[in-house]
Amino acid sequence: MAEIDQIREKWGSKIGFVLAAAGSAIGLGNIWKFPYITGENGGASFVIVYLICIAVIGLPVLIAEILIGRTTQRNPVGAFYKLSQSKFWASLGGLGVIAGFLILSYYAIIAGWALGYIIESINGNFYLWPDPTSAAGHFNDLVSNNYWNIGYFAFFMLLTIAIVFGGVQRGIERASKIMMPVLFILLIILMIRGLTLPGAEKGINFLWNPDWSKIDAKTVLLALGHAFFTLSLGMGAMLTYGSYMSEDDNIPTAAFQIVFLDTLVALIAGMAIFTSVFSVGLDPAAGPGLIFHTLPGVFVKMPGGYFFSILFFISLAIAALTSSISLLEVVVSYYVDELKWKRHKAAIILGFIIFLIGLPSALSFNLFSDIKIFGLSFFEVVDFLASNILLPFGGLLISVFVAWIWGLDKVIPNLKKGAEKLFENYPITLVFWKIFIKYLSPVLIFLVFLNSIGILDKIIELFE
Ligand code: TRP
Question: Please, where are the H alpha helices in 196-249?
Answer without folding.
Answer: 200-208, 217-230, 237-242
